[in-house]
Amino acid sequence: MGPSTPPRWPYPAHLAHRGGGTLAPENTILALRTGWEHGYRAAEVDAVLTADAVPVLLHDETLERTTDGHGSIARLRRADLEQLDAGRWCGARFAGARVPTLVEALEYCRAQGIWLNVEIKPASGWDAQTGSVVARSIAGFQAQFPADAWAVPAPLLSSFSRSALEAARAAAPELPRAMLFEAVPADWLAIARGLGVVAIHCDHRALDPGRAAQIVASGYGLLCYTVNDPARAALLRGWGVDAICTDRIDRIVPG
Q1: Are strands 156-159 and 221-225 parallel, antiparallel or unpaired?
Q2: DSSP symbol at 238
Q3: Which terminus of the chain, N or C, has less C-beta within 10 A?
Q4: CA–CA dist 118, 201 (Å, integer)
């Protein structure tokens, strides 16, 4: 690697899963704050679209698990979500937490110096639209500020959906992207090249040293999710893994 060659992974090595891991209601500003309070300056969040095409932070296509609402996110408008409680399920002390918009999360992270990996999580049939809107929302937010006003790199977009990543590339080609897999398939390199991604993200349980070495040698960043054991995290680092995403921000100290 020459002196002018950019690093494969120019991002933090530890990411708080869904903002604050298991310590706060996922995909909320409270979660991001909790991660920050535990020393994490990077987080992974999930972005979906409401019926009126507003990107918000939510992992599931439906509302029941993490809010007091019901039904599909694709059927509700942003104004409907403002009435929901997204914190009480995680503990009475979190009651009143709201489902934030992606822009609200970006505003908080910019103020706190938190780098984001934004996973595009399209509802069924919304892959391309979700990828496009999420990418345009991030690009539009960044365009409001001069480049030197950012303390962290541009957010990294990732997704299991190739259609979403293709749409994100078309909408904002300047934003970096990563391909998400559970187990990295044999044709991963062709997929990565076809999508123009900069990194591969995968389930650590399905990764082996040989595949990790292939990815690293090919010049791609490598992130593993969801790593909750410090010894496992150290082993993965020994394989060349660049970053881990963890729920146990109380057990794994960010480097």
Answers
A1: unpaired
A2: H
A3: N
A4: 12
| Helix or strand run (H / E) with residue 55 | strand 55-57
For residue 148, what pLDDT is reported? 77
Q: Where are the domains of the chain?
A: 14-23+31-45+112-246
**What average pLDDT does the segment 63-74 reach?**
96
**Mean pLDDT, rounded, of the chain:** 96
Which amino acid is located at 227 in the chain? Answer: V
Half-sphere exposure at residue 249, Cβ-oriented, CA atoms within 13 angstroms: 28
pLDDT tens digits, 124-138: 999 999 999 999 999
What architecture is domain 14-23+31-45+112-246? Alpha-Beta Barrel (3.20)
Catalytically active residues are 17, 59
Rounded-to-integer distance, Cα 190 and Cα 216, Å: 15
Letter for the amino acid at 69?
Answer: G
How many residues does the structure list for the chain? Answer: 255
CA dihedral 20, 24, 25, 27 (to 10 degrees): -20
Beta bridge partners of 236: none
DSSP 70-103: -SBGGGS-HHHHTT--SSGGG-GGGTT----BHH
Distance CA 168, CA 50 (A): 17
Q: What does the pLDDT look like over 177-216, one tens digit per residue?
A: 999 999 999 999 999 999 999 999 999 999 999 999 999 9
Q: Token digits for 95?
A: 């009651």
Radius of gyration for the chain, computed over Cα atoms and rounded to the nearest angstrom = 17
149-177 pLDDT, tens digit per residue, is 778 999 999 999 999 999 999 999 999 99
